[in-house]
Amino acid sequence: MDPKARHAVTVLRQILRATEAYDRIVTRDTGLTSSQLLMVQILDDVGEASAGMLATRMGISQATITSLLHKLESKGLIARKRGDTDRRQVWLSLTDAGRTTLAQAPEGLQTKFGTRFSSLPDWEQSMLIAGLERVASLLDAENIDASAVLTIGELGGEQPG
Amino acid sequence: MDPKARHAVTVLRQILRATEAYDRIVTRDTGLTSSQLLMVQILDDVGEASAGMLATRMGISQATITSLLHKLESKGLIARKRGDTDRRQVWLSLTDAGRTTLAQAPEGLQTKFGTRFSSLPDWEQSMLIAGLERVASLLDAENIDASAVLTIGELGGEQPG
DNA sequence: ATATTTCGTTTGCTAAACTAATTATCTTTT
DNA sequence: AAAAGATAATTAGTTTAGCAAACGAAATAT
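YS: structure for the whole thing
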């Protein structure tokens, strides 16, 4: 692999790591981990959602949703309600406490990074965004998902699925 | 928050999520998690490194290095050797099996992001890396506290601590 | 010689995420 | 209507990353 490509990957990982470290701070401040925060934010967005919908939207499994839900429920931030038409479903929504917490913990990652970002000169903001979008397109999860497995399957003996 | 800042955050999220999804695929296909793979790659790069150097380079704690090391050692990919001049140090290097695995495994990263990235014109590669590093520094700034913030520029009213 | 620092390891914890199996409920098919 | 199948959420159990704190061993400073 090109040295530059490798370097790019390294920096990407640094960003990941920085974000994680960042998350820890947010967690300390808000009492919510980033996944939990995201869940709360989405619920604030959509008002109400079933567990499965959240799973899809967050890109994680239902089991993980359940476990996040436990935590948020025990903190009193989310309420659950059995579905009317379909009693298997569990509808989730923010409690008042949830909304309050969200209002106080405004946007976690967004605030600080956003503030710093906003203070950059306009041309640099544009440039960074363009770069990030480029990287995102290079990473593009869907594309990878479909084709990568097939490509790689030829490597060794084992076949996923 | 600025629309641009918000947008930047959104794209950043996309990148994070894409990367995570990506990691899962790489892990499935190579048998190495992304952290493990990175460790192997670095060792391939530098030939030999002490545990502490790896920790610094990877941006994780020594304790975590040790635990990754255990896994890679048990897979026979990495060998350890006590330092000659300083016997506290542990020098790590790839075994033949490690090199072999890496030679087969990198398809995961190469075929997609790496290949795509490598195919970009050189100036764009440099630009993207610079942008990523900038973003990393923005994310990191909060962590590293006031001193780093100054390096980045006059940012705004807020003072950590 | 003694104290301090440094390097790596161990221990013990948190949190996310997965899979597989289970329960409860809906939907089809017979 | 009863049996079979599909779907929603949960539970159980596992893996992995990561950290901090305590610790032993070795190097360095006093």
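YS: worth flagging: Residues 20, 24, 50-52, 62-63, 65-67, 83, 86, 88-90 of chain B lie near DNA strand C (CB under 10 Å from a C1').
IM: good catch. Also The beta strands of chain B are 49-50, 78-82, 90-94.
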